[in-house]
Amino acid sequence: MPLTNELRDDILASVPSLRAFAISLSGNGDRADDLVQETLLRAIANIDSFQPGSNLPAWLFTILRNLFRSDYRKRRREVEDAEGNYAKTLKSQPSQTAHLEFEEFRTALEKLPQDQREALILVGASGFSYEDAAAICGCAVGTIKSRVNRARSKLSALLYVDSAEDFGPDNTVRAVIGGNGG
Amino acid sequence: MKEVKKQGGLNAEIQSRIGHQLRAMYDDVVRQGVPDRFAELIRKLDGPEAAAAAVAGGGDTDKNNGGD
Q: Which of A121, A158, B32, B46 is 20 to 30 A from A112 in CA distance terms?
């Protein structure tokens, strides 16, 4: 469809969530904004192929996701360097506990396989349905569900392994003691 | 006896903490709104041709921070 003012506004309204998705995927603010910019340019360049009435955010997310994927291998080393710099910036602000916790979570997220990370973000943060997430990633709905589950398990192991062990053995021990001692 | 799921399921509390942190991280960026550079970019592009030219030109619009 043509680039109407209404469509322009709708695209603009998607920018905050596109940025959040891009930052979650790439782990780097500058890189994320470049991705968003390229997504916007490509979306508008190909606006004729957008079906009026279909899901505009999902269409934009698909473009961003594909750009990230096609660019990812080329840029991987560069991104790693940028992450190192990002971590240094954070260490210079030791008082900001929230930022450190935030960084810890982000670091764990970075360790997930890319398939699982994007599925988890789309469903768990962007609020897309499993069906929309499957369309964005070009895979089956069941595949998305299993990626999300695996992502959650892995994050839990990375972040909360200590507390998970606290829950497990403690309860087992208590149960055993309770059962034997009467 | 209280049972804790160890395999095939996540502790509900941990799962809710993960969901909460994920959304907190995401929403922190969403709340930043639309940076000027993107509002300006979309305003400047009058159609698909202009956008296609910007893609082909390597998107040098991001260096162009001046403006009204």
A: B32
